[in-house]
């Protein structure tokens, strides 16, 4: 969609609870326009067009794809519900099941509706929000965000039956990169709030022991590291600015900027800032990695039994990033400056029982279930050769999970990541800036029983230092590129999928992992899907291999839309995202 053109949000796939927002609860393999309870299409297009010139849209701290322009400030799909945050006034819209209060709506919905945050806050939270609105000079009756209770949202994450929402800071959004030293000294979270609503018995609400339901309310998380009460161990000279939140099936990751201000004899001194990761929920397979409990300045290590438990409140996650990158040779765009030692956490993604963390030097770290290779190759191995009493070599039993983040070996520089249930994707989006002919490649690894990896070509072996030596280790990662396809008529039918001796490919501008499928959008406006297709989440039709409508799609297949789509070649603004057997496309 070029700047000035109207775009449309299409949805297809699993829809038994109206989570697609298409005004029905029927599964569909034909993309249908999403419906909104207000004149939203005009609102979102105006907001999106104005955001094209807004630097915050390409802010690497808040955007999932560094150089890709997205139609929504944030978007999240849960088990049976969906949430999105608009640009502009940062409003939260939701649709789908409300059985456990996961949508903050009065009842289940089959269209996107504005979340009723002002009616769903706990009584004490309502008073605090009203006071905050008053402090910001907002008139509750005349505020443009009145229907949302004056709340502006920064990030949202959906799990199986719960939602975590993160508000914008006050007096933000104009001072995201500054530390509000002058704000209320009793608020260590920069006047931001992390809300939880829905249900979960694995600690995914983060509300502390004994709280597994919110009763249809949005409850502020004030436990663990987010506890700012005078009796908490959080020091007053520590400030958190919350950047984004992501959720898996039963676990949550929260990225924050932590600023520590030296305090000598009660006088505030120099401030130092760094990105930190918090987590809560299930860590049975190590999907949260290694967490630490702190008592003042003391760090208390946890045993493996303690780590493989439920973390009921936000807890610090420890990641030891190596100074050297054990990966494939970087692309021509890379420089040594990209690989600086002082790397910050750029993004994170959650699978069903594993997690990825992306650093600013292009390195990806993984932790959690590894039964299907979803953690990717690494420089160390959990399978060790030992000698028995007879001196024969024996191989110890392979462990199918890992508690602790380690670097994924075999990847080039990437600046965006995505997780499915048991597979992953990553891409370097830097070629999207300034060169419409530059190559973009999706790197995928993990489970492939439904063709989630798209039949891609394997990356070459990589020389990695093992115990000080050098050895070729298979990358275990495949790369997918899309050959150009010409469409005829208005049905998106394939006419010619041959590339020129395999050397010509379409530039990919957006991609996403669904639960067990993968989506990609090209600069020309074509949308492709592959993998599990039981609910039609890869679209309908029959490809050259004879795959019928709801059969698995082992290689990228163009998605057929009911009408001719506008080309997105002007502003590379096409966008895709996947959910639990569901797919969304903005074009």
TrEMBL record:
Residues 1-33, 121-148 are annotated as: Disordered. Gene3D superfamilies: Regulator of chromosome condensation 1/beta-lactamase-inhibitor protein II. RCC repeats lie at residues 7-88, 192-258, 275-361, 362-430, 440-524. It comes from the Eukaryota. InterPro entries: Ran_GTPase-activating (IPR051553), RCC1/BLIP-II (IPR009091), Reg_chr_condens (IPR000408). Signal peptide: none annotated. This is Uncharacterized protein. PROSITE patterns: RCC1_2, RCC1_3. Residues 122-131 have a biased composition (Low complexity). It holds the Pfam family RCC1. It comes from Linnemannia gamsii.
């Amino acid at each position: 969609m070029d700047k000035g053109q109207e775009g449309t949000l299409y949805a297809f796939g699993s829809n038994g609870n109206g989570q697609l927002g298409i005004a029905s609860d029927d599964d569909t393999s034909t993309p249908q326009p999403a419906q909104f309870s207000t004149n939203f299409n005009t609102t979102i297009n105006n907001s999106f067009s104005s955001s094209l010139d807004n630097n915050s849209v390409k802010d690497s701290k808040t955007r999932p794809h560094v150089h890709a322009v997205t139609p929504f400030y944030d978007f999240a799909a849960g088990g049976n519900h969906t949430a999105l945050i608009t640009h502009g006034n940062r409003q939260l819209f939701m649709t789908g099941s409300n059985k456990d209060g996961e949508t903050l709506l009065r009842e289940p919905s089959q269209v996107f509706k504005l979340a009723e945050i002002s009616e769903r806050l706990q009584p004490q939270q309502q008073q605090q929000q009203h006071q905050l609105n008053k402090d910001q000079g907002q008139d509750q009756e005349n505020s443009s965000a009145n229907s949302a209770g004056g709340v502006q949202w920064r990030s949202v994450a959906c799990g199986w039956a719960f939602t975590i929402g993160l508000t914008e800071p006050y007096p933000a959004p104009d001072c995201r990169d500054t530390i509000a030293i002058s704000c209320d000294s009793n608020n260590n979270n920069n006047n931001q709030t992390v809300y939880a609503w829905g249900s979960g018995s694995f600690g995914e609400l983060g509300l502390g022991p004994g709280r597994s339901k919110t009763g249809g309310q949005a409850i502020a998380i004030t436990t663990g590291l987010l506890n700012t009460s005078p009796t908490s161990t959080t020091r007053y000279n520590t400030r958190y600015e919350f950047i984004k939140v992501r959720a898996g099936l039963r676990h949550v990751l929260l990225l924050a900027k932590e600023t520590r201000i030296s305090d000598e004899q009660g006088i505030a001194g120099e401030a130092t800032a760094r990105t930190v990761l918090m987590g809560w929920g299930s860590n049975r397979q190590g999907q949260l990695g290694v967490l630490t409990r702190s008592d003042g300045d003391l760090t208390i290590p946890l045993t493996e039994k303690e780590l493989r438990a439920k973390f009921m409140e936000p807890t610090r996650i420890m990641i030891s990033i190596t100074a050297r990158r054990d990966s494939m040779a970087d692309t021509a765009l890379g420089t040594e400056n990209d690989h600086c030692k002082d790397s910050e956490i750029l993004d994170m993604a959650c699978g069903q029982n594993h997690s990825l963390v992306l650093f600013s030097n292009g390195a990806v770290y993984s932790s959690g279930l590894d039964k299907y290779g979803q953690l990717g190759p690494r420089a160390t191995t959990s399978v060790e050769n030992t000698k028995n009493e007879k001196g024969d070599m024996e191989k110890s039993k392979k462990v199918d999970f890992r508690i602790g983040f380690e670097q994924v070996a075999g990847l080039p520089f990437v600046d965006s990541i995505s997780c499915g249930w048991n597979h992953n994707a990553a891409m370097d989006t830097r070629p999207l800036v300034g060169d419409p002919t530059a190559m973009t490649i999706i790197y995928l690894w993990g489970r492939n029983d439904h063709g989630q990896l798209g039949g891609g070509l394997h990356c070459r072996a990589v020389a990695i230092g093992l115990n000080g030596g050098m050895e070729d280790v298979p990358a275990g990662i495949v790369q997918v590129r899309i050959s150009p396809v010409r469409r005829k008529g208005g049905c998106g039918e394939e006419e010619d999928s041959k590339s020129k001796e395999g050397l010509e490919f379409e530039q990919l501008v957006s991609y996403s992992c669904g639960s067990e499928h993968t989506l990609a959008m090209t600069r020309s406006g074509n949308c492709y899907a592959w993998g599990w297709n039981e609910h039609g989440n890869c679209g309908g039709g029959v490809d050259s291999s004879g795959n019928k409508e709801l059969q698995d799609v082992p290689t990228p297949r163009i998605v057929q839309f009911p009408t001719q789509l506008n080309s997105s070649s002007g502003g590379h603004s096409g966008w895709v995202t996947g959910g639990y057997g569901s797919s969304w496309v903005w074009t």
